[in-house]
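Input (C-type lectin domain-containing protein):
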Amino acid sequence: MQAFVFLIIVGTSIAQEQRECCTAATAIVREFNRLHQQSFDRVTQNMDQHVQVLETQNLALKNQINNMERLIAQTETHLLAEISERTSEMQSALDQLTRREADNRRQQILANARSRYRIWWTAGNDRDNEGVWEWADVDRPFSSIPGRWYDGEPNDAEGGEDCAHVYLHEGGTLNDRSCNEAGGFICEFELTD
Ligand SMILES: [Ca+2]
Ligand SMILES: [Ca+2]
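Output:
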């Protein structure tokens, strides 16, 4: 009878220890889960904040890039307009310089010619059709010449003046004269570099 009671006491003690141990383990697991969840929430919150900062920085960078692209486009347009304007000005200056050089050369030739011949022939004539002046050497309207007739000319004096010469003493104006008279001649040529 005494031995049976002892077994019951021992059996009761083991079961109690098992319950206490189980309760403690459950508490530990619950605490671990709470701490884990707390840590996870904190990390998630930090990541959300970090992502938000990155998105803000990304938006700011996009705005800066858009501004730079707009600035580059405006600068490119301005530079192209500037280059076009400068090119036009330089071409105009070059044309003016070329014309001035041609005029100077023409004046120099005429000045040198004054002392050599009294008559300087051009290629202008109306030998084929009286009163209709043309160039003998080029297919170009006679009216496009830079010179002009002297006052009262051409007069086809005595019906025999069919060739045009230059009056050097009258500013390079033209007069019609007999083609048979001896004289110098004037040729037009293109100036080259
Ligand atoms: Ca004539
Ligand atoms: Ca004449």
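The longest strand covers residues 120-125.
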